[in-house]
Amino acid sequence: MSDSVSLIHKNTSNNLLRRDVRFLGHILGEVLVHQGGNALFTVVENIREMSKTLRADYTPEMYAELKETVTGLAPEIRHQVIRAFAVYFQLINIAEQNHRIRRKRDYERTAGENVQPGSIEDSVRELKSLGISPGEVHEMIQGISLELVMTAHPTEATRRAVLDIHQRIAGDVMELDNPNLTFREREQLREKLLGEVITLWQTDELRDRKPTVIDEVRNGLYYFDETLFDVLPEVYQELERCLDKYYPEEDWHVPTYLKFGSWIGGDRDGNPSVKASVTWETLTMHRKLALAKYEEELTELLEHMSFSRSIVEVTEELLESIEKDRREIELSSDNEWRNLKEPYRIKVKFMTERIRNTGNPNASEKRKYNNPDEFRADLQVIERSLRNHYADFIADTYVQKLVRQVELFGFHLASLDVRQHSKEHESAMTEILAKMSICEDYSKLPEAQKIELLTGILNDPRPITSPYLRYSESTQECLDVYRVVQKAQQEFGRSCISSYLISMTQGASDLLEVLVFGKEAGLYIHENDGSITCTLQSVPLFETIDDLHAAPDIMTTLFQIPAYRNSLVSTNHLQEIMLGYSDSNKDGGVITANWELRVALRSITAAAKRFDVKLKFFHGRGGALGRGGMPLNRSILAQPADTVGGGIKITEQGEVLSSRYSMKGIAYRSLEQATSALITSALQARNPQTNASEEEWEHIMRGISEQAQTKYQDLIFRDEDFLTFFKESTPLPEIGELNIGSRPSKRKNSDRFEDLRAIPWVFAWTQSRYLLPAWYAAGYGLNSFYAGKKENLEKMQEMYQNWSFFRSLIDNLQMALAKADLLIAKEYGSMIQDQGIAERIFGLIQEEYTRASELILNITGQQEILDNVPVIQESIRLRNPYVDPLSYMQVGLLSELRALRDQGDDDALLLREVLLTINGIAAGLRNTG
Q1: Can you list the pairs that 374-379 forms with residues at least 24 positions away whose Cβ atoms lie under 8 Å?
Q2: What's the pLDDT score for residue 625?
Q3: pTM of the prediction?
């Protein structure tokens, strides 16, 4: 496509986005008039215009007028004004998501032979152009692995009912692009959209209670039901299509390299509601949905299976399998297929009955599928027969898709990880060993003695627990979890749960404790031949900066223990290790967290290599910039290529789930880009391109990190007024009243900073428009190297141009600085009782913001922050005038609410308005935590 054609195409595409935004804005305007009269509409329009004008041409007079207008609203109209801006952002987000799908379709429609950058075909074509042989491609495809793990972290501020309305509006807005719509059909579509927006207006966006864990499980399953069950096979199909196109001499069947897992219902760290019984119920719900989806697919397959034996010749294998079904299954008269000339439909009816019986404990083994392999075998019988009479299209389109779904989802749908805090295990172990008179106080033993004791227990076949002893409730629950895992592996297959994550891992004993508990439940078994069968792996989670430093030595210690090292035989010598982006950022700041995570990846990989252990790194990224958030493909490419050989796991949580996976088009594009990134990363690992300057760059980066960490911790940990500033100038206390998650915001009932979870930490700073965790101390660290020297600036410019790690770091800082707004943030300082504290700490933050912004512009050579991503730059510029009024109102409401509470009073309506502003700002900034 020529540059001029591309420009015209881009402008046309952007015009369609603007059309949708205006269209939805006009509809919202009608709803405001309809629901609140012209007075409401006039107030909202007046505030909107004043805010836009202020952003375009700031004057102190206009600033004072806008604040006075917003804070002077009467309570009866203020509530509706907040909702008007919040709903507007919901509609804009829908328009932008739709536009992403439109852009991809437009590109594919107009590009001709051109291939879209970042697509699967783009990466496969690159392999071919580089002369990579089919054999090498096979090896690469066999080696790539990505598991995306849904978590229930409380960062999704939008209710499921509201998301459902969003889905309907998105579908209707997309239909506006249909050129075949008649005038009347367009009018009907507009009326329907008006009705949906009225429904949205009249739907409460706030939850009336905290969701239960099972509510959260249902929310996670929604994405499997609505998109992933269909989209994932399409991604595999596209990869096979591209491999067939560029390597036609090979017969390709791509192994399972991309799948989804879940923590929801298994993550009990800090959440006392996640009991062993809840984990069992979660797994049952997983299987129930998987079987329901298979029944849907078989029903659709039935419609395409009208092949008649009067015309085609089916295989004997198919006919024999039908006879076997007849002997084993008796169908009711209304369920059997009566046309005996249509054997495929007869077979599918029997298969549907088996699926219905699967999971039914009262059904005999002969009447159901006892494992997914049996189901897949029946599908392959049908496939071979179809190809025998050249019905390849049906075999490829419907049967192969279902085969792939069985390979991906089995009967367990998704692997469930279990997670618990290391201190919970230590407490339970202390009680158990004391009751058996093995050790008086295990918790007080030095680490070396703990390791010696636990290793001895692992090597001893005798149990250390007894059904005749009574344990405390917490210890009994700890033991019950392992028994449920063992029972689940028997019932749902070993893949249903295979990883047990240990939060705040600080020593080798933390992992050995999990193996000892596993041994008590039959998950760690010494076989008669001396080998070890271990079906539940201990997975360390290294979170703080100190933990990252200790990680290589901890893993080295473990790999030297035969009782541990030999347990990895069951996983083909693969060890999973999780790295926490949120807590490391909270602990050391964004620069240091990113640097130390990179160092840890490399040093842990080197340690494992000495013991011939492969590593699968699990990256605990959040959605927000302050928690490691970035687009999925970029998060894959950000990893050093030599650390991805054993596969990658990445958390997907909160608002990331709804933004990436609620619409099929966006889900497909995200997973397609992830696949392309995996192939690119595998290629880089096979052909490492080392830059001679990288060692020098790393030395520079180490110094920058050290200076940034000192600056960050000087404020966060060593400034005695900082916690006061944070708690009083952000909506931290009120966020806990949003009812967006079942888990408490603190690990303990404590006001200590260390006990505050990273999610509310980031959420609160995002609401107050500081976004401080995503950029603070970066400017100081960078400036410590620059020091006003031209040659040092040129060196950082060189690093930005030629080192992907540094470029990614700087670009993420740009994004954070662009979203932050210190003019608005300063308003939140008015809530601090001691204005001396407010002015002093705000001054430190403002100084650092200015320093970071100026340095980054010098490093990148840009005129403005985010000049490198004009689409996002423009989106932020257009959104800010609409977010600002919500921020002004939030400050006023928080001040009023807190003054009441300080007097021992409260106001439910006032709190509701505060929570509505939190939702609105989250939608406007497209980030929570």
Answers
A1: 375/294, 375/351, 375/406, 376/403, 376/406, 376/407, 378/321, 378/347, 378/351, 378/354, 379/351, 379/403, 379/406
A2: 54
A3: 0.91
